[in-house]
Amino acid sequence: xxxxxxxxxxxxxxxxxxxxxxxxxxxxxxxxxxxxxxxxxxxxxxxxxxxxxxxxxxxxxxxxxxxxxxxxxxxxxxxxxxxxxxxxxxxxxxxxxxxxxxxxxxxxxxxxxxxxxxxxxxxxxxxxxxxxxxxxxxxxxxxxxxxxxxxxxxxxxxxxxxxxxxxxxxxxxxxxxxxxxxxxxxxxxxxxxxxxxxxxxxxxxxxxxxxxxxxxxxxxxx
Length: 222
Ligand code: 5RP
Hints:
- The chain contains six helices and 13 strands.
- The chain has helices at residues 3-15, 30-41, 56-64, 101-109, 141-149, 182-190; strands at 22-26, 49-53, 77-82, 86-87, 93-94, 111-119, 132-136, 154-157, 170-175, 195-198, 200-201, 207-212, 215-220.
- The longest helix is centred in the first third of the chain and has 13 residues, at 3-15.
- The structure holds ribulose-5-phosphate (5RP).
């Protein structure tokens, strides 16, 4: 099966969890696009839902699919569905390949359940083969990158795809090799002044739904 087919299978499985009313977070990327497609094809079912998009791209896809978009509200986000670039056995993630890490983390952090959807190529034993995305403020950004390098990462400003985030900040990627302690590294990078967000999402996922050649792996973390 192609990776796209596995992503679609994960999205189909995830769509079964969406309640028929309430606020739902929607991530960014090709896996999430399948979920938006499924919902858009049956948008009447979701007329009592409001969706919080994690990027301008997702906002457009939701609106084009006749799904109601909101960007501020009182009340709670019942669940958030998003993809991942890597996922380890305890559900820690590297995210932000598509450059939406800051909004993705804000939505995930404010959701009662954060559900990761992906194909099996995203499963790893230890995080770090995929470079860690970081979003940094443009002002003195070279200094901020130097500080990230002092933690042992080799950084590179993005030169392909999305170079500037939806928030107007610089996107870069940091190669730390295999990461021994993802939680510690997440906190250390986040503490650097000038860093807006880091694409390590540790201890956040409630559940993952992974499309594999052998079927769906559905795993709960909390
Ligand atoms: C975007 C992300 C995506 O969730 C991640 O890159 C996975 O994307 P895809 O579903 O296309 O494999 O973090 O910022």
